[in-house]
Design the sequence.
């Protein structure tokens, strides 16, 4: 469980470690949206993303549900909001239309939930540590989806995304190049773009262990760990960039039957697919793009 606390983790009690991680995560969440006004927080920036303020309320409701209600046995702080912030009952397509909390009330809800969770942890202990870690990871995952929505709307915090450096994942440079276009490519990113991104490596056939181990945190669909045997296959050394995908499309990738498997072509024809963005590429389209570039 990650924490940026200045104290050595070994010197902290389990309760202090959980509270430190919760506080660190919350600070990141609030810092992410600190520069945004009410309109930016409540606007639906993309039909496939939530309004940012919905995410804030959902983070609070999830923490209350798992850490206060299910882990500590308390009544929900705002039972009237349970349906609004249930991701299944309120899917993304309608989150901009429901009666959710506004920015001020959403932040107040987050704070009120946090105060009761902290008090409960200090008084009764952390309970199930996996549930605590799940709540922390859940909030971090929502800051990722919030960043996606903010990137679409071009409202990321000042200085983001950072200019690529050797310390960043090499996959970030092609993605940024595809987004910014040639006129705005930083010099180092352009250098990376010149590298051979279509290099393929052979993975020999053999078994591997799939899934999470029996102990420690994992989601339910990551267990049980089991042995899977795969045949030999090739995989590209670098992730596909937006530019590379457009080259595939412009080279007739969705028109040339010889690049497609029977299954993939049937999918394309059934849904009348003429192009597909890299951010939402299906398995079928990805396989055919692989057939186009593989040696």
Sequence:
């Amino acid at each position: 469980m990650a924490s940026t606390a200045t104290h050595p983790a070994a010197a902290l009690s389990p309760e202090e470690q959980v509270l430190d991680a919760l506080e660190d995560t919350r600070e990141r969440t609030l810092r992410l949206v600190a520069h945004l006004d009410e309109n930016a927080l409540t606007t639906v920036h993309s039909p496939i993303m939530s309004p940012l303020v919905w995410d804030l309320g959902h983070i609070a409701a999830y923490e209350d549900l798992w850490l206060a209600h299910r882990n500590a046995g308390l009544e929900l702080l705002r039972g009237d909001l349970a349906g609004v912030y249930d991701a299944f009952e309120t899917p993304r397509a309608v989150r901009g239309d429901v009666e959710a909390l506004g920015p001020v009330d959403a932040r107040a809800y987050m704070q009120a939930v946090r105060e009761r969770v902290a008090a409960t942890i200090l008084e009764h202990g952390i309970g199930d540590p996996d549930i605590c870690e799940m709540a922390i990871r859940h909030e971090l995952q929502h800051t990722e989806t919030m960043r996606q929505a903010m990137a679409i709307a071009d409202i990321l915090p000042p200085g983001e995304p950072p200019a690529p450096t050797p310390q960043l994942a090499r996959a970030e440079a092609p993605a940024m190049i595809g987004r910014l276009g040639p006129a705005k490519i930083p010099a180092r990113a352009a250098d990376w773009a010149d590298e051979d991104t279509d290099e393929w490596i052979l993975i020999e056939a053999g078994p591997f262990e799939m899934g999470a181990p029996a102990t420690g945190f994992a989601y339910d669909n990551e267990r049980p760990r089991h042995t899977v045997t795969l045949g030999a296959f090739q995989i590209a050394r670098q992730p596909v960039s937006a530019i590379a995908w457009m080259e595939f499309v412009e080279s007739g990738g969705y028109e040339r039957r010889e690049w497609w498997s029977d299954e993939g072509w049937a999918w394309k024809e059934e849904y009348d697919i003429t192009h597909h963005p890299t951010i939402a590429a299906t398995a079928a389209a990805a396989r055919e793009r692989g057939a186009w570039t593989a040696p």
